[in-house]
Amino acid sequence: MKTITNSIVGALALLTSTAWAQIPYSTDVNTLFLYHFDESSNATTAVDSSGNGRNATYLSTATSGLPSQPGMGNSTKGNDELTGMTRWQDSTTPGTSSLLYNLPTSAFTIEAWVKPSADFFNMANGTNSPVIAIQPTASGLNDYVFSILRHSSGTFHLALGDSGGPNRSWTVGYNLNWVADTWYHIAVTGTPIGGGNFTYKFYDNVGNSTTTPTADYTDASKAMLVGQSGNNATRDLNMSNFYGNNGDSYFRGEIDEVRISNIARTQFDTLAIPEPAMLALLGMGLGLLYLRKRHRKNS
After folding, report:
1. Which domains can be identified in the chain, with CATH numbers?
2. Which residue of 4, 106, 166, 221 is surrounded by the most CB atoms within 10 Å?
3. What is the pTM of this model?
4. How many whole angstroms separate alpha carbon 296 and alpha carbon 4?
């Protein structure tokens, strides 16, 4: 029976190892955009899985088809060129009529999975690493940007900015204690509280823990994000890069599972589950345990 016992212990030990898989996001009535980035390398279209038909375009120097974490398929990354991003353009409703322009004026959630590279930690103090940017087309101006800000002290923080500045709302007092080549889930929610003010909540690294996390930082009673009023240009949703600054403002690493919603979410699909092979091992372990107990009973 010692061999059987060792097999059970071995199977359960494997279950508690790193062979876990994340569940890709599912769309619901509050999902405006959802990009899984599961396309192969050299793809030109990033499919929008929200059901709204807002397919984005991999620009010429964006990289698609990169492996993501287990269960998530593929991912994408930008680079330091103005064509190194994935973009959806709201070309039918330009200027202040755009869905993108008006998105932060009511409740919203912006979220993504990100994996910083080693180069991420080399960006200069006082600069931004944008993940998701809303901008007038071909303009260095921005309506708002969800990014990682490197403070002048060298610490890293989540930031949500508009034309008033990239650190309009940021996680002062809460540092991102990240390491290279590790996947993190980040999110920001906005909730109107009256008088043109909002409460913004920031979430970081909620994977493998709970689907209902506590916000890592809350910025209460802040002025509503304000876009580039009077600008009649079409609006772009740029992911993994920012148009302007010669393309140097980009996220140094991979991104996956970008979702934008018209509610302030409190639950996120970030709880990992065992991969199928691990579930099979669990079944084997339970079966062996049953046989062991039955053998003892008959002895």
Report:
1. 20-274 (2.60.120.200)
2. 166
3. 0.86
4. 12
